[in-house]
Amino acid sequence: MTDRPSDTRTPSGLVVLDVTLRDGGFHNAWDFDAAHIRSYLHAMDEAHVDWAEVGYRSLDRRGFAGALRYSEEAQLQEFPPLTHTQLALMVDAKEFTGQEDALLRLFGRRDESRVGLVRVAARPKDLKTASRQVELLHELGYMTTINLMAWASLPPSERPEILSLLAHSKADITYIADSYGSMHPNEVRDAVSLWRTITERPFGVHLHNNLELAFANALAAMDAGATWIDSSVLGMGRGPGNLKTELLLQHLETRERHPTYRTGPIYELIGQTWEALKLRYGWGPRAPYILSGHLAVHPTYAQELLESGRYAVPEVTSILHTLHQAGAGRSFSRQALDDAISSRPTRMPTRRSARPEPIPNPAPTGQSPRPAERGLAHFRGDNWSGREVLVVGRGPSVKSHALAINRYIKRFSPIVIECNHLAEIDASPDHLCAFILLANAQRMVDEVLSRGKSVLLGAARRGRAAIGADISENEIFLETYEVSNGALSAAPCRVPADVVSMFAIMQAVRLGATKVRVVGFDGYADSIQPREQRMQKELESFFELLHSRFPEVEVVSLTSTSFDVPIRSVYAEVALAGLAAPPPAEQTKPFGIKVMPELLADDGPHEEPEGPLGP
Question: Which of 127, 126, 144 is nearest to 135 (CA)?
Fold first, then answer.
């Protein structure tokens, strides 16, 4: 079934292809509300947009993904009838390498489908298999494109040969994608001009907006002869997003006097629905995306780091530079991201009046180590096996029960490790404030030191450090750690997520502490927010791993918690101190939590619970 003739070219030869649902799905796992899909399609049709790319067809079974990740024909048949807009889908060439039978099973014949165009996305190394997939799709009657990803990363000497190979494929249209958002108008113009020296066949561009040049690049592409232009509503797409459909159509309608396109329905859609989606998901140019564009680092790295809510801009830029220097940023990899987090340079916090200076050479034998070389062994020795450690999380219960917690600290004299700094907790003789994010440390270091507490800074194990000139050797201690998904070890310190409470607990375990008490680990068991639900799962998995790998470590929560650890009352501990030995710790309810498989897979973002409800 088709909604309109297959030749969608306007009288000027220009074709606008909107990718909002397909590219925007990177923000919501392609789980769009059915009403939003209908309103989107109506707006596209009324605006006379030529093509709407509504999703993928995919073989990927990892994790949860919504309907438009797979775009079954039965679902597409439920879409409203369209007069001016045709439907397109995308496939990833590498998924179907050696899986041609699967491709044929997923796509029926064109005359039985709502889909008129199938776009095959491929990197240069996958062009041969992409060309074969295009041939199969042509035999089924579909129009096709090959979308060559990461054009800017191709050496200029290889570009003519690559384009010549594409020109001889059966694809109806050839696209290049500015995958890193790093291209400038002259580079886009050169690419289109090079294509036109080889063939007059249609050529298209998919433009990311890292440098806020997507519109300028589109004008350069059209001026050089490109006739297929991708865009999306409000630029919705991975990371910094894409060329904005409303901006492109407004230009064509008012400046070019184009007789076909209408911008009004797009503005109505934005006001009714898409503005709220942008507020919710937060795509669009931001400082780290500008840097990822300049460095030609895949935008998913910046998106993952920003969406975690864990890293300030300086940490994000440091990690992006680390990826670039390691040559690991061209395609997204969870392992590469974990390695970069564990390798990023670290600058020690300074008092605001001080300037950081480079890390010194190791102290000569017999001299006291400088602070950057001082680990926790210089704090209270390298054996904490006889000491209780109290880790103070950041849940609201800390403020609610601060008086009792302070009485507990005074009564039992534990080594205290705060997760960042909490003003409600009084200083004690053995008191640390732990930080793994430089922005938090820099913001709080003055208050921490003025309160008589010391600083424990977690630094990337393979990173570099600089130290503030006015930080004394008794005020700051540096320990290294690594982040590795699903891993947990004490020496070296390795945690499954970049979470300060995990770092704090594992430092105590590393030094031999077997009696660990926690407060303020309230958790997010009742939250409906996806980010907080992921935080809950992260800590659940951490405690499960801790119990299985370090059974000698007794962790007890002294305030209410949703995590699967024994619970006692901080009030009982203080009120009944000295009367009798406390009974065995009892869990208030059986959680029966298991390690979540998705936490051990290489497929999704992880957040540090530093908000008001988490450790």
Answer: 144
Select the more confidently predicted residue: 584 or 610. Answer: 584
Q: What token pair was written down for 509? A: 């375990």
Band of residue 583 on the pLDDT scale cut at 50, 70, 90: low
What letter represents residue 51's amino acid?
Answer: W
Torsion of CA 604, 610, 614, 615, to 10 degrees: 100
The residues facing 516 across adjacent strands are 389, 555
Phi-psi region of 241 (alpha: psi -120 to 50; beta: other; left: phi over 0): left
Structural domains of the chain, ranges and CATH numbers in brackets: 15-281 (3.20.20.70), 287-343 (no CATH)
Phi/psi region, residue 204 (left: phi>0; alpha: psi -120 to 50; beta: rest), is beta
User: Across residues 385-391, what is the average pLDDT?
Assistant: 93
* 490-537 confidence digits (pLDDT tens): 988 999 998 999 999 999 999 999 999 999 999 998 887 777 888 899
- Segment 289-313 mean pLDDT: 77
Residue type (1 letter), 99: Q
Q: Cα(152)–Cα(330) distance, rounded to whole angstroms?
A: 11
603, amino acid identity: D
CB 80 within 8 A of CB 42: yes
Cα gap 90→568, rounded to integer Å: 55
What pLDDT score was predicted for residue 352? 45
309's torsion region: left (phi>0), alpha (psi -120 to 50) or beta? left
Contact indicator for 82, 54 with CB cutoff of 8 Å: no
Exposed e or buried b for every residue in 40-52, given b needs 16+ CB within 10 A?
A: bbbbbbbbbbbbb
Question: DSSP string of 367-434?
Answer: SPPPGGG--THHHH-S--TTSEEEEE--STHHHHTHHHHHHHHHHH-PEEEEES--TTSPP-SSEEEE
For the chain, the residue count is 615
Q: How far apart are CA 308 and CA 291, in angstroms?
A: 18
How far is Cα 293 from Cα 573, in angstroms, rounded to an integer? Answer: 55
Q: What is the largest CA-CA distance in the chain?
A: 91
Indicate if the pLDDT at residue 367 is higher than 60: no
| Single pTM value for the model | 0.64
Q: Distance between CA atoms of 67 and 29, rounded to whole angstroms?
A: 9
Let me know if 167 is exposed, middle or buried by CB neighbors in 10 A (0-12, 13-18, 19+).
middle
